[in-house]
Design goal:
about 180 residues; alpha+beta; 4-stranded antiparallel beta sheet
Length: about 180
């Protein structure tokens, strides 16, 4: 079949569907059709669709007014006191919370290597650090990632001091800070 045949067959299908469809109702656009509940003769039984329409219209008439919900999903209520457990004399007392050690808030940094240069007879070391943002080349006293300051650089380790609280982290080759 070529494109002309497809066009003819498609057009014939559209026309057949249009002729087979029911004619539009003569009800004005603003008016709603009302369904009467009068007894119908035995020969004129309502179809399934008509019965469903009657049932749904009756259900719409019985609709209640809007009731505000009992809870707001966007706000949290205050905590309730511990309720008494069945079989116990009074309310259950909560166990004291164990102190939780906070994980370091600094970014993950690991030592990838150390470079050494001889300048005027002394050794200057540069630490090569791997961070989430990429590779960092740092020397002693420099600030990195806005969180650490480089303390001391050794042949296989580097000491980082947190700027906020002064804690010291020692990184060795191949190890990462949590």
């Amino acid at each position: 079949m070529n494109w002309k045949s497809y066009a003819v067959v498609s057009g014939a299908t559209v026309l057949a569907g249009w002729f087979a469809s029911a004619p539009p109702s003569s009800t004005p656009a603003g008016a709603q059709a009302t369904v009467s509940r009068t007894a119908q003769p035995a020969s004129a039984t309502p179809s399934d669709i008509e019965r469903e329409a009657i049932r749904l219209q009756a259900r719409l008439r019985d609709a209640r007014a809007f009731i505000a919900p009992a809870r707001d999903p966007f706000r949290f209520a205050a905590r309730r006191e511990a309720a008494a457990a069945p079989g116990l004399d009074g309310p259950v007392e909560a166990l004291p919370a164990a102190p939780v050690e906070a994980a370091p808030a600094g970014p993950r940094v690991s030592l990838s290597g150390v470079a050494e240069d001889q300048v005027d007879g002394r050794t200057e070391r540069t630490a090569i650090l791997s961070a989430p943002g990429g590779i960092l080349l740092v020397r002693e006293g420099e600030e990195i990632l806005g969180y650490y300051r480089v303390g001391r650089i050794e042949a296989e380790a580097v000491e980082l001091t947190a700027i906020g609280d002064g804690t010291t982290r020692r990184l060795t080759l191949g190890a990462a800070t949590p």
